[in-house]
Input
Amino acid sequence: MLRLSCSRLLKGSRASAFPLRVPSLVAQAQWRQYSAAPALTKDIIQERIVELFESYDKTAGKEILPSSSFTRDLGLDSLDTVEVVMEIENEFSIIIPDHEADEIKTVQQAIDFIASQDDAC
Amino acid sequence: MSRIRGLGTDILHVSRIEKIFKRGPEPFSISKHVTKLAERVLNPHKELPVFQDYRNQNTDSGFRECVRLFATSWASKEAVYKCLDPAEQRKFSMAHWYKQNDQHGRPFIIGPQYSKIHPMDKFLLSVSHDADLVTATVIRSEDGDPISGLSEAGIRQTTP
Output
């Protein structure tokens, strides 16, 4: 319940920052809110990150792989990256300090960072 | 005698900032997304209060000033980042730096925390605007005089 109650998904705020579409996970989360929350596995993190990128206009339609580099493969520049990092913070209810954010250059590195955060949900 | 230690430049379409600020269902003046972004990029003592003053005006001109301030600050700090050594780039935080203009209108940029560690480093900033573009260029030089010997603005007092 805690995981669900603190999930940004229930607030639907992604639609405000990344306006293209509201991910299907929103519906799943609302439907499941009275059952046990799934553990935040790396697979679930990856799925949510891929959805996040799919809803961002610059990366919509691109293949999002764990190995995808933000700049080389996804074509994001520094301003895009700050936006994406902020959106990841919203998505998983975490704070990513600047010096940590600078080290996140691939989807896999983002997944690993989130997985290392005890309070990510 | 000064030695050039780094050169950085950045170019930005100002309209990108405008788009980001207008994104989302909340109006610009109360958007949490804008607040978070501004707090991440703007210096809390020197830039953020000015930004908030313009924002609180809740007018088109206030909005334009916010966009201009943010875009110029962003480009200037990106240029600073590019002229730093890799070890300092890893510690870089935009909010630690601020861009202002001296009494003659010339822009300068300073990072008080950085200057404490590297008192000999001096940053020269040039900014240019045209249509939708802003560019910033920064030269990092190592000076014989520690920065504490400079004016409060972090630049030499010169006669124009």
User: Anything to note?
Assistant: Chain B has one domain: 3-149.
